[in-house]
Amino acid sequence: MIRLQYHPELIEQAVRLAVRDDDARQNELHQAIDPIYQIEDVAERENRFGQAFVEWFTRLRLDRFIDESLANFPHLVQGVAEGFVRPAARRKSQRADLFVRSDGDTSHTSLVIQLCPEFLVEPAGIRDALMRELQHVEDMVDPSFGYAPESIAGFPSQQQLARDRYCVLWDIRIERILESRGLIERCQRLRLAQTFRRAFTVGGRPPAPDVFERLWEGETASHVDILRKAGGSLDWVWDSTQDSECCTTKSSGSLCPMCGFPTYDWFELDASADAWFDGRVRERIGEWRPTDGICRQCAETILSERTRFGPNRGTETVGSIG
Prior knowledge:
Layout: E1 3-6, H1 8-18, H2 23-33, H3 42-59, H4 64-70, H5 74-79, E2 82-87, E3 95-103, E4 106-115, H6 118-121, H7 127-141, H8 156-180, H9 189-199, H10 211-217, H11 223-231, H12 275-285, H13 296-309
Parallel strand pairs: 1-2, 2-4
Antiparallel strand pairs: 3-4
Helix pairs in contact: 1-3, 7-8, 8-9, 8-11
């Protein structure tokens, strides 16, 4: 069972905010703490201040929001021994994280929640965001999800792309769970559909129209499922009936035959590209077919030559790549 500890600074700030608009309570608070300023011993004075604000924090039930939120995540509550609630430096810093500390053969897990003090007083504005953060931590300690730190093979850019796609797919899982349980007021399904489309569009070829809906309505994905979809072949995002000739189907992270660098943005290229474009590419790399693909940067460099010099120059060399 998780035991929560609130940072003294967060406690004091929340209490002061909670009584700010109540003159009677403000006066009562000052009656309790003003005499403490007279204590000469610094350590004793700070200890008494801390006790006073903790009493007021408990009296005002400012821990209720966190307690009620955690009650929705049984794996987290039972699987994490301790939790710390700390003040966030700014609103964008608010989050919940799981930390694992190894001590020999034993590991200790801790939940850390960073929150601005005003949201302990008026939590409505942060409720949905905190639910999403806590569901992520819940997944990490839920055996059915099977979360485990994984090493991803490939170039650093490939690894980063796989991580980014993993985050998108995990966010979709999180949102559908929270929406189905009625734990969020504003579902971000539309925003996630747009994010998914951007993350899984390759070479101008977007996912099939119904892929996101299948993800949303299908079985809840596990960690292994998400990792496979994020870092493996992307065949699953395209409908088998789509015209495979309209776009390159080179896999993400493959090397562009022109520049030799791994690319995740293959240029949308008709299999029967015009002779001018074919000629420009073959001047640089010899034997080449449209089905071999070309990265967007190289393709746009060549197409910029068409703009500058016109399409009627045949295969005469005009300028260089880059």
